[in-house]
Amino acid sequence: MIDKALARQDAQPVRRIDWDRMNRVLPRQKAELTRAIKTQDAEKVAAVIKRHIEVWNEIGAWPDQWATWQIALDDLLPLGRQVDIRYL
How many C-alpha atoms does 56 have within 13 Å on its Cβ side? Predict the structure, then answer.
């Protein structure tokens, strides 16, 4: 069983992380998130976060400070409500 699992694992394409792209887009994404937060509109913040996650998935990694995006959405939702940003 382990040999078969290793064979399947080895057959998967190697996914490279585009760190150069992450370093280019992350500052702009932080600024866009800040602008969205200032609107105090949870739907706008969620839309921005969704776009950013799509880019992160294309890049192949989420930034270390991904929780900033989660906190931004949590802060705008009613008390006791939370939406995991992975599901946006």
Answer: 19
Q: Provide the residue range defining the domain that includes 80.
A: 17-87
Average pLDDT of the chain?
95
Count of domains forming the chain? 1
Phi, psi angle pair for 40, to nearest 5°: 60, 25
Give how far Cα 4 sits from Cα of 11, 12, 14, 40, Å: 11, 13, 18, 51
Across the range 52-69, mean pLDDT stands at: 97
Asked whether residue 50 is domain-assigned, the answer is yes
